[in-house]
Design goal:
single chain, 177 residues, Aminopeptidase, 6-stranded mixed β-sheet, 5 helices, 6 strands, acyltransferase activity, transferring groups other than amino-acyl groups, Acyl_CoA_acyltransferase
């Protein structure tokens, strides 16, 4: 959606001599904890909201359970409130996707390094939420991320776990645990 293009940091990996996309990473920039939302932030959040409503009306929800979205956002707010101690904010890996045939070939690492290098230069932390512990702890651990806590999203007994990870500036590779 256009909101991401205006507000995120995107990196796209393409196959050499081709336009085939191998992977995409989208990060959110650090937001200082004590900084109130700007008018631009407020306008952007409403643009995102109305854009999502328009897409749902036009294309249907496609099975989207809105209640679960809010369960996830509440769990995310709770986890970030507990973990985010740097008042300058964190670089937040919002999404990382690498096509299966390119996995294990360093594509994801290169997509990550573009932002982790910037975070290191600014002496800032990075944060992500992983949908799996195995194999993702090892993958993200090689980039210096360490597991922090489980994030439980429970919809009346139907629960999933997400795994929060933080990378300190200039972190060394580790197991991710």
């Amino acid at each position: 959606m256009r909101w991401g293009m205006r507000n995120g940091i995107f990196h796209v990996a393409k196959e050499e001599d081709s336009d085939k996309v191998l992977g995409v990473a989208m990060w959110l920039r650090p937001q200082p904890a004590d900084q109130p939302p700007t008018w631009n932030d407020w306008i952007e959040s409403w643009k995102l909201y109305f854009g999502q409503v328009r897409m749902n009306l036009w294309y249907g929800r496609g099975g989207l359970n809105v209640k679960r979205y809010y369960i996830w956002k509440d769990a995310q707010d709770s986890a970030q409130s507990a973990l985010w101690k740097d008042p300058r904010g964190y670089f937040f890996l919002n999404i990382m996707v690498v096509v299966p045939e390119a996995q294990g070939k360093g594509v994801g690492a290169k997509l990550m390094k573009a932002v982790t290098d910037e975070a290191d230069a600014k002496d800032m932390r990075c944060y992500l939420e992983s949908s799996r512990d195995v194999p993702n702890f090892a993958i993200y651990g090689r980039l210096g991320f360490k597991f922090q806590k489980e994030m439980i999203c429970d919809d009346d007994g139907d629960a999933i776990k997400l795994f929060t990870m933080i990378r300190e500036p200039n972190a060394e590779p580790c197991s991710g645990r």
